[in-house]
Amino acid sequence: MGKIVLNKIQEKTKENFVKKLASGEYKTKEHKCLCGENKSLKIGNLDRYGLPLNTVMCLNCGLVRSDPYYDDKTLKSFYEIEYRSLYTGAQSANESFFEDQIALGKRIIEYLERELDLSLDGKKVFEVGCGAGGILKAFKLENCDVYGCDYGEEYLKRGRQEGIKLVEGDSTNLKQFGKADLIILNHVLEHFLNSEEELSLIGSLLAKDGLLYVSVPGLLSHRKSYGSLKWYLQNAHVYSFYLSSLEYLMNKVGFRKVCGNEKIRSVFVKDNNVQPTRTSFVKKILIFIFLKLSYLL
User: Fold this and answer.
1) pTM of structure
2) pLDDT means per 10 residues in the chain (297 residues)?
3) Cβ proximity of 239 and 195 under 8 Å
């Protein structure tokens, strides 16, 4: 990907966001690791847009997080006002955005069918953080019963034009549609401030033997997709994951990995007997050195 070149909409959005931080309208607070420990190694201090973002790795469990991070009020306002404009350079979903989502949905379907030998015909599918609903459109074409939720009414309108049931808000708004055979979290988990709480809620929406598909930008594969770590880090990301750190988090809230890779594409099922396994100290240090060098170079 390389260095990000912002268009006029993005430049203006960034300027407004920085002003709000400087004035105190937008606030940050200490963000301790999910494991409860607070000893960390610093990786970087800016995101790919040049926004202040302190990125650290927990020495105890190996999770990479942003600390400090925005408070709940700031995050809500950011996603309602600045997020789409900053990250896409547009205030509504254009046709290419929707078509890109459909293509991504097809790739997710191919992954699930290849890794799990799964038939999707007639399955009920939820997507949390659905954007314009293009991923769900791909599943609808496979005869799935699809539902999605997200913030940003202008983006949701595009999917509704395709007859997709999309609601504004978080995953609690999907309860009305019953239990899902498959829930999709595509580049969403890294945005959750209260990830354990959110994942527990999402787990309650799964049917018995239901599957949770989780895709996040893989830390250990970032050079292939982004080049330097400087162009990977994003102020909208509370956490960044490699596969074993993702598995640690998922285990903590009662999910067991079925399959996954460092890209990261993965599938989990509910299993209350699973025990979390932390990344070894040696592996954590090696990963930290790799990330630090990538950020500096």
Assistant:
1) 0.93
2) 85 96 96 91 96 96 96 92 88 81 97 94 97 96 97 88 94 96 97 94 96 97 93 96 96 96 97 91 96 95
3) yes
